[in-house]
Specification:
The chain has about 220 residues and is an alpha+beta fold. About 30% of the residues lie in helices and about 25% in strands. Keywords: Signal.
Length: about 220
């Protein structure tokens, strides 16, 4: 159920497996991320005055009760860090919401939190599910987030981990359930690149992932 990782064409090919690994079938050695679509300007610049209007326009994302995507310690006393963590959480929720809703294009919420290149990558990740008529359920905690800002505070990187041991995929027609293959480490480390757009929203540019790289 891991998300895909995409920076090059080769990476894109390898990405599809990760999300399918934890939540479904797939190669236990593969890794995945999902990132990227732009809702307007792709420029990583924004003003403080525009962030309030962006808050009003943020999409509402709903996940079903049978899929518990939780975020441990995704809070910060620093306002800038908290703003990034909040947007990154919603981007991740939007990706899984698209899978569950069977929306191969990702939907408006994912486009809101992704840059254009990232959205293209995320759609490939989502289609590894929708293309096989799969949905996801179970529990997926995301933990140990760490944020690092560029000097201009308009670009940043985020690392975090997930534990897919209780996350599964399910075929919508047959009801067949799959999880990580036996012996596969369910913990996956993610490294995400983000940029702030003109509306003050942190959007995903790209994501890299590595299975078994988490300390917990």
């Amino acid at each position: 159920m891991a998300r895909r990782t995409v920076t090059t064409a080769a990476a894109l090919a390898a990405t599809a497996a990760l999300l399918l690994t934890a939540c479904g079938g797939g190669d236990d050695s593969s890794s995945d991320d999902i990132k990227g679509a732009d809702k307007g300007s792709g420029s990583p610049s924004a003003s403080a005055s525009s962030s309030s209007s962006a808050d009003e326009d943020r999409p509402k994302i709903t996940l079903p009760k049978n899929f518990q995507l939780t975020f441990e310690d995704w809070t910060s006393s620093d306002a800038e860090t908290q703003a990034l963590l909040t947007d990154a959480k919603e981007q991740l929720r939007a990706g899984y919401a698209a899978i569950i809703a069977n929306e191969p294009d990702g939907g408006e919420a994912l486009a809101f939190y992704d840059t254009k290149p990232g959205l293209s990558q995320d759609r490939q990740w989502i289609k590894t599910y929708t293309g096989k008529n799969l949905t996801v359920f179970g529990k997926l905690p995301a933990f140990d987030p760490k944020v690092s800002f560029a000097d201009n505070k308009k670009a940043a990187s985020l690392s975090y981990c997930t534990d897919e041991s209780k996350a599964y995929s399910k075929n919508r027609k047959t009801g067949e359930v799959a999880g990580n293959p036996a012996g596969t480490d369910p913990r996956i480390s993610y490294n995400v690149s983000l940029a702030m757009n003109a509306q003050g929203v942190w959007q995903n540019l790209s994501t890299r992932s590595e299975r078994g790289a988490c300390s917990r």
